[in-house]
Amino acid sequence: MGHKGGGGVGRRGVVAGAAGLVASLMVTGDVAGAAGPEPGNRRGGDGKPRRGGARAEEFRGMWVATVVNRDWPSRTGLPAADQRAELIALLDQAVKRRLNVVILQVRPTADALWPSPYEPWAQCLTGVQGRDPGWDPLGTAVAEAHRRGLQLHAWFNPYRVATHADPTRLAEDHPARRHPDWVVPYGGKLYYDPGLPEVRRFVQDAMLDAVRRYDLDTVHFDDYFYPYPVAGEVFDDDAAYEAHGGGFPDRAAWRRDNIDRLVGEMSERIKDVKPDVRFGISPFGIWRNATTDPRGSDTRGLQTYDDLHADTRRWVKEGWIDYVVPQLYWHIGFGAADYATLVPWWSDVVRGTGVHLYVGEGLYRAGDPAAPAPWQDPAELSRHLTLALGHDQVLGHAFFGARDVVTDRIGAMARVVADHYPTPVRPPGW
């Protein structure tokens, strides 16, 4: 999935519908990045001393996006052997960079990278949704990751059905075609309606099938719940709201409850199926701005609580998730959403909850000609990790995405490895 450059706040805007987020951040201008403070507390959130600035256990993750072949496979229609070889090469790159977690997108558009009884084979494999690729990508990924000492976190997108708006382009037996009343077109894409209880149950069942079948380490959601706002368009869930919205003060509260139910129920059901499988979410980095809510961060951007109807702070406080990876894809000193402001804010949110905090890093921005000046400095990303060392709740980082880990346009990832990853370590709790 491609990302927007410049001063925008979208995580995966090119593919996943975050267009317009530049405006939503209400950017007033970039501030030049500056080095973070010297590391302070040298103990991790688990109480273990850090060794030379690194923990004995630390989350070092890499996202592998499959939607529209962002990171893998390199293109549709490759022979099974070539697809497998490319996947193995990415796992080997993770090992080379001394990472220890691969977050593989296995349900990109309500289709599957395993032989699912619920949904068709993913289009990103063969170019034709529903066509058997001739191998089991998820099964292979789990086995090969574990063989290399990597955790495999299966990344699911709950509600996105298609990156286009034409239901006839979906596989003939796609659930969205069998149940057109489940689907809402919005912003040139198709989404399942989160307000329908039968939809919520179905997407949980579809995702839990992978949990039952494979030795997954974690179920991982990203930032897409209700879709990112599109100017001039309305997400048409009138029928669902009329049927199920009684008792709520307004539609926004009802929508938040729908997403809370998805997260809370999924948490319980994962533990029922396999108690050792964890549940993590990687939300957009701003919960609410302090100007909206005094509990919010000193930022001026899109708010997950209000705009995506995702109460990410509550999920941490309720303990519904095992880890949170806020996408802090902004440079140190960025006025509207400063990395140096959001790291301590999230640290305070998780403190005392038992929920692990890992920071999502925008590696894809490093060296992007459209990105602000600080991202042209190969040391910017390394400064992020240095700053995070001063916050004992930060137990690691994840990098978006795999393509950028491999190409490393200006050497920013190499700098991170040289400065912060001198030796391999275990991921937390493994």
From TrEMBL:
- List the keywords (alphabetical): Signal
Q: Does the keyword Signal apply?
A: yes
Q: Which residues form the Glycosyl hydrolase-like domain?
A: 58-369
Q: Does the keyword Signal apply?
A: yes
- Biased composition, class Basic and acidic residues, residue ranges: 40-55
Query: Where along the sequence do coiled-coil regions lie?
Result: none
PANTHER family linked to this entry = GLYCOSYL HYDROLASE DIGH
Q: What is this protein called?
A: Glycosyl hydrolase-like 10 domain-containing protein
